[in-house]
Amino acid sequence: MKTFLSWLGFDAQKHSVRVEMMAGLTTFLTMSYILAVNPIILSEAGMEKGAVFSATVIAAVVATLVMAFYAKMPFALASGMGLNAFFTYTLVLVMGYTWQEALAAVLVEGVFFIILTIFKIREAIVNSIPMNLRYSISVGIGLFIAFIGLKNGGIVVANESTVTGLGPWTATSMVAICGILLGAILLALKVRGALFYTILIMTVVGIPMGVTQIPENFTILSFPESLDPVAFKMDFTRFLSFDLDYYIVVATLLFMDLFDTIGTLIGASTGAGMVDKKTGKIPNLNKSLMADAIGTTVGALCGTSTVTTYVESTTGIVEGGRTGLTAVTVAILFLLSLFFSPIFLMIPSAATTSALFLVGVMMLRQIVHIDFVDFTESMPCFMTILMMPFTASISEGIVLGLLSYVIVKVCTGRHRELTATMYILAAFFVLKYIAPLF
After folding, report:
1. How many angstroms separate the first and last alpha carbons of the chain?
2. What is the pLDDT of residues 76-113, one digit of tens each?
């Protein structure tokens, strides 16, 4: 047993098996919505829903196990939200690609990611980001996931006049609000597993309120759907015919996945104090990035959209998860969901609102480390923090923050504070925004 735990970076003198497993449970519960959402979104592209469910699970299990045993980190991976929407609504329904051609683009992107990770190009990008911006990424992600939680719980809704507004008082929003208050009280009382217990309690409370739906003919066990309708169905015709637009699609997927992952790793590691205080580096960074790249590649082969590191991993880290044992726990629960999907899919989004909102509160702590006196530092940081929730994109927040950082430093004669990597990134970002104009 000790040997097995050591493979996961577990040290009995520093870590607790119970804490790590509870952290894994919390992470899984806050991200398990992907099991319901991903098949629905990809089915709109013409893919078979049951097969996509199985593909989603298998890709998540493989990628998270690589993270656990290779990187020895507590992060969980699965098909990314936003990336799956881009797959269906942009590539297939708007641009007219078949889902088989879109899957091929995801596979090519994954292979490119593996190559970039082998040569440590992705690691160099992460290490080039200034510390103030790293803190702001953590804060921005905190606001973003808190906003997601409020939206999922019906507390914040769309508003024609003000874009967003306070939602109506409904059973769903009441469950979400009560969950936030209960979770805050348990955290204040330093109850271990506070977020997990809150999710569990609010799921049960939601049953008589009609928020937690128990399907008719409810059964605990279910049999996994076959992967045959979607696995290994990539169509490389566009790629081999030198279609420039298709290459741009691959580059866009690469870009979105790259900065979503970088943002999550920086934000979660910084918020948990896992960053080396002397060097500012994240432990096992390149191995974590490799897990992400392998996950995307395996996911495409199985028949699902881009796999990425989940920002919801922060909920488990807050619960004390620090090693690969947390990730193994998540992977096991994903695997079990193949057979117990009715139970996991029964958890309503309102029950997970508390975890997302309260983790956002905790990640806000990093704001005290940002230099708000130096305007060349504070303005780009503020840009990063605001743009993540306002654009609903971690990657856009990072891009706009880094770009404004370079521009402000150069225009104020402080270009010596920039690295060569920062200049290269800025040039790439400028091309990203002006390319659609031509």
Report:
1. 60
2. 999 987 788 889 988 898 889 999 999 999 999 999 99
